[in-house]
Design brief:
Layout (H helix, E strand, L loop, with lengths): L3 H27 L5 H6 L2 H25 L7 H29 L1 H11 L2 H11 L21 H5 L11 H27 L9
Helix pairs in contact: 1-3, 1-8, 3-4, 4-8, 5-8
C-alpha cells in the first residue's frame, strides 16, 4: 500500500508537470500577438517549438495519471512514463542547447534579423527602445518616428553610451526573455523528475 505522503508528493509534482505543459502551451500562443520587440526575439519557430513542448508535457501528464492508477503489480505504465520523461528531458536539453548557441553570437545574429526587418519595424523598435541604428548611428539607422527624428540627431549621439544604439537594449531584452523562459521550464522539469528520485528506469 502506497503511503499518503508519497501519493501527496506525487500529486504535487504531477501538478507541476501539468502546469509546465499548460504554461509552455499558453505562452507560446499568447506570445504570437503583435508585439514588435517580442516578435523580434521570439520567432515563429521558437513559438512553434514551445507549443510542441507544451503538448509533450501535457501528454506526459496524461501518461502519469494512467501509470499511477494501475494495479500495484503492473509497472508497464511507470516504465512508459520514465521513457516519456527522458524524451521530455532530451527535448528541453536540445532546445536549451540551441538557445545557448544562438546567444553565443546573439549580437551578430540579431544584426541579421535587424537587417532583414522592414523600415517600419526598425522605426518602431527605435522609438520603443530609444535608440538609433544597430551597432552605431551609421548602421541601418532609420530617420523617422518619434526618437530618431533627423540625421543631425543621430550624428549627435554619444558613441560611448551603448544604449544609444539598438544592439544593447535588444540583446539585453533577448537575454532576459530567452534565459528566463528556458530556466523556468528547466526548474519545473527538475522538480517533476525528482518524483522518481532522479534514479534510473523502473
Amino acid at each position: 500500500m502506497v503511503s499518503r505522503k508519497l501519493m501527496g508528493a506525487w500529486a504535487a509534482l504531477d501538478f507541476l508537470l501539468l502546469a509546465a505543459g499548460a504554461v509552455a502551451l499558453a505562452l507560446s500562443i499568447v506570445w504570437r500577438a503583435e508585439n514588435t520587440l517580442m516578435n523580434l526575439v521570439l520567432t515563429p519557430t521558437y513559438l512553434t517549438t514551445g507549443i510542441a513542448l507544451g503538448i509533450a508535457l501535457l501528454a506526459t501528464f496524461a501518461i502519469s495519471i494512467g501509470a499511477i492508477i494501475q494495479k500495484n503489480h503492473v509497472t508497464i505504465g511507470l516504465v512508459i512514463l520514465n521513457y516519456t520523461l527522458l524524451l521530455d528531458a532530451l527535448g528541453i536539453v536540445v532546445i536549451g542547447t540551441f538557445i545557448w548557441f544562438f546567444t553565443l553570437q546573439e549580437r551578430n545574429n540579431f544584426h541579421v534579423i535587424w537587417s532583414a526587418a522592414s523600415r517600419d519595424t526598425r522605426i518602431k523598435l527605435q522609438d520603443q527602445l530609444k535608440c538609433c541604428g544597430y551597432f552605431n548611428g551609421n548602421d541601418l539607422a532609420e530617420i523617422g518616428g518619434n526618437f530618431c527624428t533627423s540625421q543631425d540627431f543621430v550624428n549627435g549621439l554619444n558613441n560611448s553610451v551603448a544604449t544609444n544604439f539598438c544592439v544593447q537594449p535588444i540583446t539585453d531584452y533577448a537575454d532576459m526573455t530567452l534565459n528566463n523562459v528556458f530556466t523556468q521550464e528547466d526548474e519545473r522539469f527538475r522538480k517533476i523528475d525528482s518524483k522518481r528520485g532522479g534514479r534510473g528506469f523502473v
